[in-house]
Each structure stands twice: as structure tokens, then as C-alpha cells.
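Appendix B, record 7
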Amino acid sequence: MPWLIDQKPACSLSLRDGAGLATLSILLACTSAPAHAQDKDAQASVQAAPTGQTSSGQTATNQPASDTDASAADTGSDPVQAGKLVVPAPPADVVLPEVKPVIPDDEFNRAIPALDSQDDPEIGKPLESIEDFERRMASGQTDPKPAEGQAAPLGDPALSDGDTNEAVGDAPVRDAELNAPLPSIDQFEVTPVQFAEQKKDDEKDVEIAYQTRIDGLDGADDDTGTDLKSEFRSHSALKKGDGKAANLAMVNARLSEDATLMQTVLASEGWYSPIVTTRVERAPEGSEGAPLVAVIKVVPGKRYSFSDIVVKADPTVPSDLIARNLSLKVGEPIIAERVQGAEAQVALALPENGYAFAKVGDRDILLDEDSGEGVYTLPVDVGPRSRFGGFTTAGDQAFDAEHIGVLARFKRGDLYDSRKVDDLRKALVATSLFSTVAVEPRKTGEPAPDDTEYVTLHVQQDAGPPRTIAGSVGYATGEGVTAQATWTHRNMWPPEGALIAKAIAGTRQQGAGVTFRRSNAGKRDRTFEVVAEAFHNDYDAYSAYTGRIAARVARDSTPIWQKKYTYAFGVEMLATAETDYNRTTGDRDRKLYYVAGVNGQIGLDQTDSLLDPTRGYRLTTLIQPEATVRNGFDPYVRARIDASAYYPVSDGLVLAGRVRFGTIQGAGLFDIAPSRRLYAGGGGSVRGYSYQALGEQAPDGTAVGGRSLNEGSVEARYRFGNYGVVAFVDAGQAYRETMPQFNNLRYGVGIGGRFYTNFGPVRLDIATPVNRQPGESRFNLYVSIGQAF
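C-alpha cells (predicted):
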């Protein structure tokens, strides 16, 4: 009878018509009973209940219950209603979370209809056995061929095929348990929940120790410049397991993973058909180390080499452009790193030589297992040879396409070179005006000379916040603590017209000023700025109240864009009221000076970093013709030369040295404003002495400044990670004479610490004077950003 298998819905329907609804209410009541409401008293009530009565009013002998028993099923006394059915309580030392019912118990009980044998006589009847059920269903389907219009037996057309030999047939039920009546609910055994005990703190997981051995790799390791064993160990699961595993299965899993890794490592060096086997064996008796050995045995096989190299590409100019940059040769081993490097070089060289849209396709290497050779094929789509055309731009713009052309280092008609495009991209980033900026070539189809096409560079702009607030704090003996804050709007007057306001507050210096600066002013890397400021300096050598205006055109280096050649020229005028030593009275009188002048500076920078150089040299020359107006017109020329050099002794040790020479020609010492004289001493001069403390001293013990100076420094800088230490010796002196005298030099020695950041090193130096004189500090401290020189 195949319908016993196929017609399960009919059987389910019969059970639902009988006791299924009562069973459903019991299950729902069990699931809605809060677990935290069960205790030992409730268990006792379950044990005291009659054992011969079921929840549906049936007895253990499946006889109908009396009316009195049926009436006990109302909402007030039914023990299987939601909230009244008791289940075993958890152990006393286990706290379970409180689970709130979705539907209140009373509402749920009212929604379940009452079950009574008077309403449905079938409720009080015992459940029929499976055999009786099958026999009753078969008697209702005696004719396998329904009449016309009659539904198929049990709704299954397969039973109307007239085939009396079915796959299952009328097999009798042999399992006696299927014919047995269902037990009453109160006799149903529930296995108590077993709660796992928490692991004690002093209990440790069981571990097995193992060691790893690789056999058969030495020959392949000797044939390649790569350390295969080291490469394998750096990614090995066995190595990462540190020789410990929870069980043997874990060791085998790591072995399987490492076998795949070994095949990958060998394939990367040209062995494409190795045989790698693994096993776990016991270590020899009496040997040291772990008792188990995870063994990886390797048979590398043949090392494959190139038998032919084929490039599928259109002709290029020059004709060997691809071949010259694809550094692969017939007969050499197929090494993954070399193949990838050669393809990357081709992808780099083509755009650098006019092919803006070149694309390197996916390689194909056909391996011959018999010969151990491979045929390498690389498709390349070179695209049209191109020349620079114009510019387009879109997005949230900081400036227009015309200013983009100012930043470019190429002209229309120049052969396309991706390096120049990268240079333009860096220049755009260096403006600090963008959150994001992208530059990409776009085809125009416009013909250009020499069978080329013009391309347009499209710049997608996303302007960033134009305003910034910055601050810095420094300390130096003789200068005290100095704090500076700046507010900058980098694009108040586009393109790149910035307004900068600054304020300085310190123990020796206070002031404020504004600066207008136009970056890339009509030409790449050229800056024009106008400054107006007022400040007060109160140093040991002089005290000054100064107002200053200046204009300057410069080509300066920045941390983002360091330049080999720099220049600057400008004009300045200032009015300053300064104290100076009066040789007649012996007092310090405040005098008013008016100073006007021009200035020019040129520089050569061959170092590798602006803020932290480790190799190379620098040379800077400054010339300032100016005049002082005070009881007459006193013209003079100020000049200074600075040179420094850096030599890396090792990866972490750098030797650095510098010299400085300065002179003032054309005026007497006391005809020059004190702030325009030359001084030595301090953090950027001769450490170990206060700021501007060296040179000729007035009778009151303070420096009067000079008309010449000479300085020198030597440093040994050692860096480890983000930290460094420095030992240094400084020497210098300022003189009344107009030319450096190189005598009476004062020396300072000290040590310093460095903390390296992404914007340069933070410097802390402590120094002491050699042959310290009365009134000089034993130690002097200097804190700033950047190296001393």
C-alpha cells in the first residue's frame, strides 16, 4: 500500500481530529511556563497527582472519562493550562535568565477552546492502532480506478494507474510499539536537563607537543636565491601553532594546510609538479624535544623554464619598447616574482612613453610536464600613442582648469608621460585644498602630429575644508616658553589666495600679525606674500617694540615638496623702539629706529629630507642691503652663509655638521639697531648658552651684539625605531669687527633625544658650556620640532 508512505497528510488529519488539539495545548502550555517559577513544592504536587488520568480526560485503559472529570478541565482547575504545568526546577546553584511570555497566561488560556466529550464524542475514544488505521483507510479505497469526475484516491493520481503491484504494497506493520496505545501525559518521562559544570580556573586544556621536520627540500633550496624554508616557515600553520595542539586531529589539519602551502612556495620558484606527503610519527626514544614529529616530505620534481616568450601586441614606437622592459628570457626558470615584476615594468613603461591607455592582459603559461618547459604568452593592448591636450575639471572645485594648467610641468603637444601626470597630481595634493582629487586621461579622437592623438586630462575635484587652526609650543633657555597659534583660510581669494592670522604669547615674546599669501602665483612653485605684524621682544640683549611690513616672492621647499634649488627676494620696512647700552651714562636707553631694505636669498639642497636629512648637503646665502634712519642715514649690507652636510655611517647612525659665517659692512656697531646686529648662542646657534648671550658684553653683563660671527656644530645621530639619541659639540662667537675673527671661541657639549613623527622629529636637547664663566647657566634646555640643522 504505497499510500501509507505517500499520504501522510491523511494520517495527520486523523490525529488532529482526535487528541491533536489537546496535545497542542499541552505543548504550548509547557513552552509558556516561566522556568524561574518552578520549585520543589511544585514537583511534590506533580507526584501527588492521580497517575491514571490523562490531560484529555482519558484513563490509562483508554476509557471515556466521567462528566465530573470533564468539568475539571475548566480554566480554574486544569493542571495543564499555561502557567500551571510544573516542570523540574534547575539545580540550586544555576541561575537562568527570566523569560517573559509573549502572551499573558490568562489571555492564552481563554483563547484555547474547552475540550469535552459531549461536544465531540471522538475526544473520549481511545486512539486506534496503526494497523486498524491502515485497514480502515484501505477499505475506503477499494476501487483503484475512480469514476469519471471522482477525485483520485487520497488526492494522489498515482493511485489510479491500475497497477496492483506497488513498490511497498500491503506490508503488515511488524513493530508492536506502533500498535501500542499512547501513554498518558502524566506518565510521560522527561529526562532532566544536565547542566555542564564550569571549568575551574586551575584546570588546563589537554595539549600535545610536536616538532616539525621537512625532508627533501634542500636541493631545491640550493637551486634558488630565495630561502624556501624561511618563506615556508613565515606562513606555516605548524609554525604558528608553536609546537602545541589540542589533539592529533589538529596536527593533521595543520599538516594538510602546510602541504598545500609547500606546493605554493615551490610553484612560486618554478617547481610546478612536486609531490608533497605528510605524516605524524613518534620521535626516536631518548631524543630531545616533543614526542611527536610532524613530517613534510617533498619531492620537488622538475623545475620548469621558459621555452618561448610570446607578446601579442600592436607595433610600438620605439619598436622594442615592450621587449626591452619585459625582462624575461628563454631558458630561465619560471619564477612568479620575476614574471610579475616584468609585467609591472611593461605596464609602467608604456604610459611613460606616450601610450596613455595601454593595458596588460592576463598571462598564459602552457606547461609541458614531459619536458619541464613552459610557453609564456602575454597579450597587451597598447592603445593609441598620445600627446597632452587640454584640461577639464568637475566636482566641488577649489579652482578652475586654467590654474590647473599653471601647476602642470608640460605643454600642449608634449608626448604623454604618466610621470608628469603623477607630478601634477602631487602638486594638486600639495595645495592642501582637497579632500580627494583624481587625474585621469580621456580620449578625444583629435589627431596630433606623428600619427598620435591628443588626450584631455580630467581633474575630478572634491574641495576640502579651507580653514585650519594650528598651534605650537617651544622652550629654550634665554627665550623662555613661546606659544604660537595660527588661523588660516587657504583659499579666501582663489586660486590659492590664503589669509593667515597669527598670535604669539611667551615669556619673552608677544605679538600678532596677518599674512596674505598667493601660492603658485602665475607659475608653479612661486609664492607671493605680504606681511603686516607687530610684536614685543624682551631679551637680555635688548627689548624692542616693533612694527613691520614686508613683501616677498619666493620658491621655497616644503615637507611635501622639497626642492633642489630655492630662492627668495623682497622688501621690508620696520619701525622699532629698542633699548641699547649707553656708553656715556652706563644705562640702557630706548631709542627709535626706522629701517628699510631689500633682501635676496638663494639655496641649494641635495639632502634626502627637509626636516630629518640623513645624507647630502645644503648651501644657503642671504644678502640684505638696508639702511637705518636715526640722526642720519646709515646704509649697510648684512650677509650670511650657511652650509651643512650629512653622512650615514650605518642604517641607524648619521654624522652631521654645519658652519655659519655672517658679516655687516658699512656702518658702526652702535649705528645699527640692536635687533639687526649679529648674535651667537642658543638652540639654533651654540647650545649650552642662553639665546644671544655670546659676543662682546656690556658692563651690565649683557651682550651688545656684533658685526660678524662664526659658528660650527658636529652631531652624531643614532635612531632606533621612532626614537633617537644625539651627542653634539657646538662652537661659535660674535665679534665687533666686520669679519669673523675665529678666536675666543666658546664651546658647548650636550646630548639630546628625538621622537620621530610623520611631520618630523620632536627635539629635546640639554647642553652645558665648556669652561663656564660667572653668570652662565650650568645646563641649558631646548625643545622644538625638527633637527637642530
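Remarks on this record: Residues 308 and 375 are 5 Å apart (CA to CA). The chain has a mean pLDDT of 83.
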